[in-house]
Each structure stands twice: as C-alpha cells, then as structure tokens.
Amino acid sequence: MTQNINKGGRPKLPEGSQRTNMIRFRVTAMEQMNIEEKARMTELKIGDYLREVGQYSKVYARISEAELHIHRDYIGAINNLNRLTAIANRYGITGNVVEGIKEVTDCLRALIDRIRDPHKYESGEEQTDELKHFNYDSKD
Fold first, then answer.
1. Is 4 helix (H, G, I), strand (E, B) or coil?
2. What pTM did the predictor assign?
3. Going along the chain, which residue ranges are E strands?
4. What angle (nearest 5°) sits at the alpha carbon of residue 138, between those of residues 135 and 140?
5. In whole angstroms, what is the distance from residue 127 CA to residue 121 CA?
6. 3 state DSSP class of 100
7. How far apart (Å, rounded) are the C-alpha atoms in residues 20 and 46?
8. Residues 87 and 52 reside in one and the same domain
C-alpha cells in the first residue's frame, strides 16, 4: 500500500512552462545600479524586471551611416536655401521666388523631422501638408 505523502513545497510546473534557459550579459557598475533602481521602482525582482523589459519593450535601431549622410545633406540644403532667402530679401526679389524657397525649406525641415523621429510615422499618422508632395513608400 503506497501512501501519497505531501512533502511540502511548491507544486511542479507543467512541462514547457518551466524556465530552464539562462541569458547572461555584462554590465558596468553604473548600468547595474540603474537596472536595480528601475526594478526597485517597479517593485519587481531584477530578473522579473529584465524579463519584462526584454519581452515587451520596443527598441529602435540606431541611425545608420547612410541616414546620417542624408541628414547632413538636408541640413546643408536648408542652410543654402536660408542664404538664398537672405540674398533675395536683400536685393528686393520677392513674390514667387521667396515663396518657392520657403516651401522647399519647409519640405526639407519636415524631411529632417521624419529622419530624426521615424517611429512617429510608423503608427499611420497622416503626413503633414509639406510632406504630401513626396512618396516615402518607395524602397529605392
């Protein structure tokens, strides 16, 4: 006759829900203090906090060299257009020329904003009036 003796302790988890794998990574002392502080603020253990952050936080890729080059080119174009606007005002050129320069400048500034914060446009927000002239969906 076998008796089912309760030895105490937590019951075993079902197969597949047990956490058996480990991920290890190195941090500096300051990074560790920051992680521990954030975990303490959320009232979670460090492992639970890192698991939540790793699974549910969204991390964005850094800007690439090509995007940085484009960004610098746009800034240069804006500077050139601003100089042209100053010259146009100094010599009395007004009307359509100045308005055209301002329109192009506004478009370039809107493009720079898009480069600086591309995640703002992922949500399907409508494009501003300045950006409606451009097709951003092309994969050139």
1. coil
2. 0.43
3. none
4. 125
5. 8
6. helix
7. 17
8. no
Task: Give 122's Cβ-side CA count (13 Å radius).
Answer: 7
- The answer to whether residues 109 and 68 touch, using CB atoms and an 8 Å cutoff, is no
- Does 40 fall in a domain? yes
From 19, 77, 72, select the one nearest 48 (Cα to Cα).
19
Asked whether residue 86 is assigned to any structural domain, the reply reads yes
Clarify whether residues 72 and 53 are in a common domain. no
What digits encode the pLDDT tens for the residues 45-58? 999 999 999 999 87
Contact (Cβ atoms closer than 8 angstroms) between residue 82 and residue 89: no
pLDDT at 113 over 80: no
Ranking 14-23, 78-87, 103-112, 124-133 by mean pLDDT, the lowest is 124-133
Same domain, 81 and 111: yes
Q: How would you classify residue 13: left for phi > 0, otherwise alpha for psi between -120 and 50, otherwise beta?
A: beta
Residue range(s) defining the domain that contains residue 98 = 65-122
Hey, what are 58's tokens?
A: 């969204």
DSSP state for residue 130 in the 8-state scheme: G
In this structure, the answer to whether residues 33 and 49 fall within a common structural domain is yes
Q: Which two tokens stand for residue 81?
A: 């257009």
